[in-house]
Amino acid sequence: MEGGYVVGWGTLALINAGLAQSKNESGLFWFLLSLLLGPIATFMIVIWVKFPKKNV
Predict the structure, then answer these.
(1) Is there a domain that residue 6 lies in?
(2) Host domain of residue 31
(3) pLDDT for 30-42, tens place per residue?
(4) Residue 46 burial (CB < 10 Å; 0-12/13-18/19+)?
C-alpha cells in the first residue's frame, strides 16, 4: 500500500503547482515544496497566496 501514498503525494504536488501558477506564483517552487510538506503546502497556497489584482 506504500505505493499508493507515493502516487497520492505526487498528485497533490502537481495539483499544488497548478494552483500556485493560477495565482501567478512559481509552479516549480511550490511543486518541490509540496513534495516535502504535502497537505501543509496546500494550506499555505490557499491561505497565504493571493490572486493577482485585475485591472479593469
Answers:
(1) yes
(2) 2-48
(3) 999 999 999 999 9
(4) exposed
Q: Is the predicted pLDDT of residue 7 greater than 60, yes or no?
A: yes
> Mean of the per-residue pLDDT values for the chain?
88
What's the domain count of the chain?
1
| Distant-in-sequence contacts of 2-9, Cβ < 8 A, 24+ apart | 9/35, 9/38
| pLDDT of 29 strictly over 90 | yes
CA angle 20, 16, 49 (to 5 degrees): 40
Specify if 55 maps to a domain: no
